[in-house]
Structures are given as C-alpha cells and as structure tokens.
Design goal:
- The chain has 317 residues and is mostly helical.
- It is built from 14 helices and 2 strands.
- The chain is flat, with a radius of gyration of 27 Å.
Length: 317
C-alpha cells in the first residue's frame, strides 16, 4: 500500500520564506545599526549629558544643570562673535559656491571635447587635503609674495595684508571657499544631464534664446539639485574649521585672529574643549546649540522648498 505525504500548505511556505528574508535583512543592516549606535547615537547621548556638566577631562564630570547654557546666552561674548562670523561666512560663501559650481557644470555640459579631463581638473581640488589647501591659500594671499597682491600691483593697486587684517581676513576665506566646489559641480552636471533635450529643442522652435531657456527650463529642472546643494552647503558652512584653524594660527598667531575676525563657531568650540581651560562640558553645550541651529536652518530650507523646487512627478500628476 503506497504511503502519501500531505503537501506543505502554501501559506506555511510563504511564512518560512518571509522569515528567512527577514533574518537576511537584519543580518545585512546589523553592521550599520551597530556602528550607528556605537559611533553616532551613543556619543551624541554622552555629549548631551556632558553639556549639563563641568568637566575638565582629568576629573569626574560634575553635574551643574543648565548653567553652561545660561552662561552661553547671557555672558559669553565670544559665542555671539563666533555665531556672527559663521553666519556672515555662510551668507556670502554659499551663493558664491553655488554660482561657480553651476557655471562650471554648464560649461562642462556644453563642451564637446576634453570633458573628462576638465571634469577631473575642476574636481581635483575637492579631494586635496584641507590643511594642504589652507597652506596653499595662505601663500596665495600673502601680502608680500602672494600672486593675488602681485596681480593687483600690475594695476597700481596695493593689496591688503589679507589674513593679517581684520577687515579682509573673512573675505579671503569666503573667496577661498570656492576652491572645493568640485563636488557640487558634479552634482549639478548630473542634474543637467537629466534634463530632457526635447524641452530645449521645443523652446528653440518657439524662438527662445539662451537666457530664456536657462531661466524657463534649466533652473526649474535643476531646482531639486539646487535644493540638495543648498542644504549640504549650509551644513558645511556652519562646520567650517580646518582653513580658519590653519590660517589663523599661521598668520594671526591666535585662534580666530586677527581680532577674532575669523573666530568660527567650530573654532571657538575647539578652543573651549582643548584650550588651556579644557572646558569639555562647555564645548558639548556649544556643540548642541550648533546642532539645533543647523537643524532649524535645514527645516526652514525644506519648508521653503515647496515655493521654489520643481518636481517632475508633480507636473505629471
């Protein structure tokens, strides 16, 4: 007599397969989750606690409630100066970076020969070590032997002592920020490549010129790319540190010099954490304030995007 086995229900097979896929999913994401908890979330929570303490690293943290924040907002003059310097830098450097990056991307998009070479040339500065770039720019803006003042001298203009003069030091750093726009340029170039060519062809048939096509087609179609670059530029501008640290210590001799004209927020936080006083708890409080400043600016940019960012899916809908 033949023995027959009952077939496994399809529902049970599907449940077994779903369970196997779930285990595989958790196994794949586990390295990232563990790394995020140990290297990002954990240090953030620890720094949040430290922001309510007085800690000099050598002794145990002393809980002092909100005194760090009270002192920052009521009596710390350098806090206001550092926030002012960083905000001013962001206001002028971000538009300048975006304009230069977009201009280079348009030129590369229109080029027919040597695109790969020029793309590499324009992107290369973005991967150069920031300290090396700062040393290079310190020489470029050197008041005696720098090429900038040498060029101005050709027209009878006496160039200023850029990084030694509080009236020009921040302006020089704003100009220097253009050095690393290669990443933004590539993102803009990718966005330009994604604009359908029939749109330009139809506009040419209608008699639109280059300027009209730029404002009616290129900018609207690039608005989402511009939005991404703006958000990343805001975050980067408020975290500026390397160039100001190297140049201020080399040329002015003090952090944030001359006369605190380049006292960026991150530079001031660093001086509190690792300066002579070693106020690590105070630096943690400054870091959390910067976190919320960047968060608020990012949220404002995201909310405003509904007014100026164009999405292809919205047009199709």
């Amino acid at each position: 007599m033949a023995v027959t086995t009952a077939p496994v229900p399809k529902r049970k097979k599907r449940a077994t397969q779903a369970s196997r896929e779930a285990r595989l999913f958790y196994l794949c994401v586990a390295p990232w989750v563990i790394g995020f908890i140990l290297l990002t979330l954990g240090p953030m929570l620890i720094s949040l606690y430290l922001s309510f303490t007085r800690w000099d690293v050598l002794t145990a943290p002393e809980f002092i409630s909100t005194r760090n924040f009270e002192f920052i907002f009521t009596r710390d003059v350098d806090f206001g100066q550092s926030l002012k310097v960083t905000t001013t830098y962001a206001i002028f450097s971000i538009p300048l970076q975006l304009l230069v990056a977009l201009g280079l991307a348009i030129l590369l998009n229109e080029a027919t020969a040597g695109v790969g070479f020029f793309r590499t040339v324009f992107y290369l500065p973005a991967v150069v070590a920031s300290v090396a770039a700062a040393v290079l720019w310190a020489w470029i803006f050197n008041s005696e032997v720098g090429p900038v003042n040498g060029f101005l001298g050709l027209f009878g203009i006496k160039g200023p002592a850029w990084f030694a003069d509080p009236n020009y030091a921040l302006s020089a750093l704003v100009i220097m920020s253009v050095w690393g726009v290669g990443g933004q340029m590539l993102i803009f170039l990718a966005g330009l490549k994604g604009i359908p060519k029939p749109l330009y062809e139809a506009s040419e048939i209608d008699g639109a010129g280059r300027v009209a096509r730029f404002f009616s087609i290129t900018l609207p179609m690039l608005s989402s790319t511009i939005f991404f670059n703006v958000v990343m530029a805001i975050i980067g501008a408020f975290q500026t540190f390397d160039a100001a640290y190297v140049i201020s210590t080399q040329r002015a001799g003090t952090l944030g010099g001359p006369l605190k004209s380049t006292l960026f927020y991150m530079l001031y936080t660093y001086s509190q954490a690792f300066g002579s006083a070693t106020r690590m708890g105070y630096a943690a409080a400054l870091s959390w304030i910067l976190f919320f400043v960047i968060l608020i600016l990012t949220l404002i940019t995201i909310r405003s995007s509904t007014l100026w960012v164009y999405y292809e899916s919205e047009r199709k809908g």
